[in-house]
Structure formats: structure tokens, C-alpha cells
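Give me the 3D structure for Putative transcriptional regulator.
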Amino acid sequence: MAGERSHDVAACKRVDGGISRVFQLLGKRWTGPIVSVLVTGPAYFVSLRRAIPGISERMLSDRLTELAAAGLVEREVHEGPPLRVVYRLTEAGAALEPALDELGEWAKKYLPDDERPEGC
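Predicted structure for Putative transcriptional regulator (120 residues):
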């Protein structure tokens, strides 16, 4: 059309592809808290569920499956009885710890503190 300026698409700011991939995975509800718990060490499914108030068994199972598919979590079955499954971070998952620590510090500084249960 007459009067329109040509637009250099390459000059536009774009979201970094790596950041998009990170938040596509870690930005899902419950994923951050799951990884945060596993940073402290391996955990059984029931321990993870107790450590993350409000998460359903189905959602925890779904998120753990996604994290395993992404190579951040590994699942180890301990034959029973009872059959128990322990989850732990892979090397790639454990490498998230410094970033999670930084995000936690940022949140303490810039986000309002919500009420915490007594004893926490």
C-alpha cells in the first residue's frame, strides 16, 4: 500500500529460542515445585505429593512423565512388596539448581510473600 514503510522483520526483537523452550517446560504449573523438591535429593512419589500441597496424584504423575521425557528426571522402580518408585534429577535436571536458587532470591526480593503455614 502507498505510504506504508517497509518493515525489517529481522530487526525486531525476538524471544530467545532457548528461553521459549525452558518456559514451555518449566513454566507449567507444578513443574517448578517438583524440580525444586528433587534438587534436595531423590524422593518417592508419596513424598513428592506430601511436599507439594495441592497437587493431585494424576498431575504429579503427568509432570514427572514430562520431566522424564525431557531428560530432567529419572525413575527407579524398587521391587516390593510394596512396589515403590523413586525419582531423582538427572545431571541435566540437577544443573537447574543455580537458576532455581537465583529465581528464589529474586522472588524474595521482588514478589510479595504469601502466608506460610506455621513451622515452615
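Residues 26 and 66 are 10 Å apart (CA to CA). Let me know if you want a second pass.
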